[in-house]
Amino acid sequence: MLTYKAPLRDIKFLINEVFDYPSHYKTFEHGKNADSETVGMILEGFADLAENVIAPLYQSGDAEGCHFKDGEVTTPKGFKEAYEQFAQGGWQGIAYPEQYGGMALPMSLNLIKSEMLGTANWSFAMYPGLSLGAVNTILEYGTTEQKDLYLPKLVTGEWSGTMCLTEAQCGTDLNQMKTSAKPNDDGTYAINGSKIFISAGEHDLTENIVHIVLARLPDAPAGT
After folding, report:
1. Which of 7, 33, 50, 126 has its CA 20 to 30 A from that of 191?
2. What is the pLDDT of residues 170-221, one digit of tens each?
3. φ, ψ of residue 186 in degrees (nearest 5)
4. Are 223 and 175 in contact (CB under 8 A)?
5. In terms of Cα–Cα distance, which of 170, 206, 174 is closest to 86?
């Protein structure tokens, strides 16, 4: 059976001895909650989850894969329970604002978490990983109404997200993307096009999946 051991000794050496992480994070708004004790607890806690809950799922993932029946996708044995532990632990929201249910910790700490998650089990990591892109997009470009509607449940992991990018004629080459978005008078957009291979596009881990669709506006510049 595949095993994973988080490289905590290396991580702690780098953040404390090489990058002087404790001094660095104090200069950022998202660093005010990142005292040494909290950072240590985050690292130890997620390492335990990655090693003992998420990494072992490679076996059921390889043996079963996902199941598709009557239009519904079911993830392999253990994935749903592990995701519930992941969400309940608040791990999805490490670097996001407290007003949306996050921990307001540095993005770099979330990157360390993502490295452990991806190394422990990349297949599982894709589910919460795709949600980060949806959260970041809404956080950066969404209206106040959209942020209030989507972010609390995406940040806590109650909902998940995707990025609808790939198209049949060009794969992920944005230069050749044909899906268009035409503005309507009411502020919405009429989307015309098709997407394929939507990672985490359907599953049983969350009650709702938010799809961020990449499309080209009528006056969009050429290229990517």
Report:
1. 126
2. 999 999 999 999 999 998 999 999 999 999 999 999 999 999 999 999 999 9
3. -90, 10
4. yes
5. 206
